[in-house]
Design goal:
Helices cover 40% and strands 15% of the residues. The protein has 19 helices and 13 strands. The strands form 4 sheets. The protein has a 5-stranded mixed beta sheet, with helices on both faces. Strands 6-7-5-8 form a 4-stranded mixed beta sheet, sandwiched between helices. Strands 10-11 form a two-stranded antiparallel sheet. The termini are far apart.
């Protein structure tokens, strides 16, 4: 058996790793898989960067940011496999939520109107709202900034966004240290379940197919161990297919609820798998069928265009200067070539390109595939913008902020 260590944070979207270990996909591929539970994204990043794990369950923007050297020493990371699409929930305390549309399901159905309601609520609130953030370089931060800015809210001026580990968020809300937070499932739902908060928005309604967590390696380790990397991707792809099967959701929630993983009641974990969310204590459930995707629509494929969308947001918010060199470094973090090498003989539908227009599909679309039939799901941004990775400068010029 090949020993391999993967660092992870206790979130529902570590499901593929947990299923790989607990359902035997890793062992069948010849791996003695050791999952290292961490408490923050900073710890997860450091365990990968400093060699305490061969791979990590990592925020997609964090992998790009570490490789670009944003706010830290540069370390080249590589991501040949996405662990999931979507999965974040934005909640605000009940006091703040009173200023929003009283129908919480209607809030989710109209993200633009809810953003403008949120802007009005800021003016009525007793202080500048404090919104907990899991990491500055996270899809949570980038999509929330995108959504807030659509209503004229300056996320650097009009709100405060301190960083906290996801599992600490509901306690911080209860203590009055923050007024709301955005976190991956199931932590957003914990505060709703306890009656502390209401759901304001979910990431799948901001970007219908938003890039979320990756399997990340140090690039030099990945290049030195191609056979291990390919074998691991095959095992994780099989685990992802198992996770995506509706009939496996209850078992998956029970696996994730174990103390060594999320350590929460499976009742709190299941909604993000089933796509039926509690939005307020005692209110009807909201249907978000694409709340979290593990395998279908080639969800594991690392589109380079998505790495470049992340880069575009780093430039937009002043995290890094625009340059051809930075653009190339960012795009190269997502290794679609390694994904193809590992899974090319598997018979899975394989995208024929490595980049695409992001946000252009409003309905499912069959696309060219080197094998099998591949249908991509709708991937619109709520404001209708389309990201063309070949025209990043023009895209950024289209934002008022």
């Amino acid at each position: 058996m090949t020993p391999i260590s993967i660092a992870f944070l206790p979130l529902t979207d570590c499901a593929v790793l947990v299923a790989a270990k607990e359902k035997g996909f890793a062992a069948e591929a010849g791996f003695d898989l050791r999952l290292i539970r961490t408490t923050s994204w900073a710890e997860t990043r450091d365990r990968l960067v400093y060699g305490q794990a061969e791979a990590a369950h990592l925020l997609a923007p964090l992998a790009v940011g570490v490789t670009l050297g944003i706010s830290q020493h540069r370390c080249a990371l590589a991501a040949p496999f996405k662990l999931n699409v979507n999965g974040n929930i934005f909640v605000m305390g009940t006091e703040f939520a009173q200023a929003l549309d009283p129908d919480p399901i209607r809030r989710l159905e109209d993200p633009l109107a809810t953003a403008h309601d949120f802007a009005s609520a800021i003016g009525l609130y007793r202080r500048k709202p404090i919104i907990g953030m899991v990491h500055r370089l996270s899809s949570h931060a980038l999509t929330l900034r995108y959504w807030l800015a659509s209503a004229g809210i300056d996320p650097d001026r009009d709100v405060s966004m301190p960083v906290l580990p996801p599992s600490f968020m509901s306690d911080a809300l209860r203590a009055g240290e923050i007024d709301g937070y955005i976190a991956g499932s199931p932590w957003g739902l914990v505060a709703v379940d306890q009656g502390l908060a209401e759901t304001v928005m979910v990431s799948a309604r901001i970007w219908q197919r938003g890039v979320e967590k990756l399997l990340a390696f140090r690039e030099e380790w990945m290049e030195a161990n191609p056979e291990i990397v390919d074998r691991l991707i095959v095992a994780l792809s099989a685990a992802a297919a198992w996770c995506d099967e509706p009939g496996n959701r209850e078992e998956l929630a029970r696996l994730l609820s174990a103390p060594e993983y999320i350590n929460l009641d499976p009742r709190i974990i299941l909604p993000s798998l089933s796509g039926r969310f509690p939005v307020r204590a005692g209110a009807p459930l909201a249907d978000v069928p694409d709340a979290m995707i593990f395998h279908r629509e080639a969800a594991g494929f690392p589109w380079r265009s998505q790495a470049l969308w992340i880069y575009s947001q780093f430039v937009r918010w002043g995290f890094i200067k625009a340059s051809a060199e930075n653009e190339q470094i960012a795009g190269n973090v997502f290794r679609s070539d390694v994904y193809r090498r590992a899974l090319g003989a598997s018979g899975l539908p394989m995208p024929g390109a490595s980049m695409k227009l992001e946000g252009s599909l409003s309905t499912p679309l069959p696309v060219g595939s080197s094998s099998g039939t591949l249908t991509l799901g709708p991937d619109r941004f709520f404001d209708g913008r389309v990201f063309d990775p070949a025209r990043i400068e023009e895209y950024l010029a289209g934002f008022a902020t």
